[in-house]
């Protein structure tokens, strides 16, 4: 995921339920790979350059955090998909 020009990595270590991807990933799979993370929308606004921005929290609903422990991010609203 990219947020404010910075790339973030998420390590999905639990194989109980597929919460990031439906792919059957193994140690022999090609990494990094694309996926989606459920999140809670905290706020939306228009940024300085007219870009629609959103603050999200990935700790809800499934407790996902970046490899450095971060759970709140500002992302381009276009990166979000309502399911």
**Radius of gyration, Cα only, in angstroms?**
14 Å
Name the structural class.
mainly beta
The amount of beta strand, in percent, is: 25-35%
Number of domains: 1
Order of helical and strand elements: EEEEE
Order of strands, widest sheet: 3-4-5
Biggest sheet layout: 3 strands, antiparallel
Describe this structure in words.
With 83 residues, the protein is an all-beta fold. The protein has one domain (1-83). 0% of the residues lie in helices and 27% in strands. It is built from no helices and 5 strands. The strands form 2 sheets. It has a 3-stranded antiparallel beta sheet with strand order 3-4-5, with no helix packed on it. A two-stranded antiparallel ribbon has the order 1-2. The two termini are 18 Å apart.
What is the gist of this entry?
With 83 residues, this protein is mainly β. Helix content is 0%, strand content 27%. It has a three-stranded antiparallel beta sheet, with no helix packed on it.
Give me some keywords for this one:
83 residues, mainly beta, two-stranded antiparallel ribbon, elongated
């Amino acid at each position: 995921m990219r947020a404010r020009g910075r790339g973030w990595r998420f390590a999905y270590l639990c194989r109980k339920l597929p919460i990031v991807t439906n792919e059957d990933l193994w140690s022999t799979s090609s990494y990094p790979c694309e996926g989606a993370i459920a999140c809670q929308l905290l706020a939306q606004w228009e940024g300085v350059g007219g870009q629609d921005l959103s603050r999200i929290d990935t700790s809800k609903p499934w407790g996902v955090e970046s490899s450095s422990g971060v759970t709140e991010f500002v992302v381009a609203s276009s990166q979000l998909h309502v399911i």
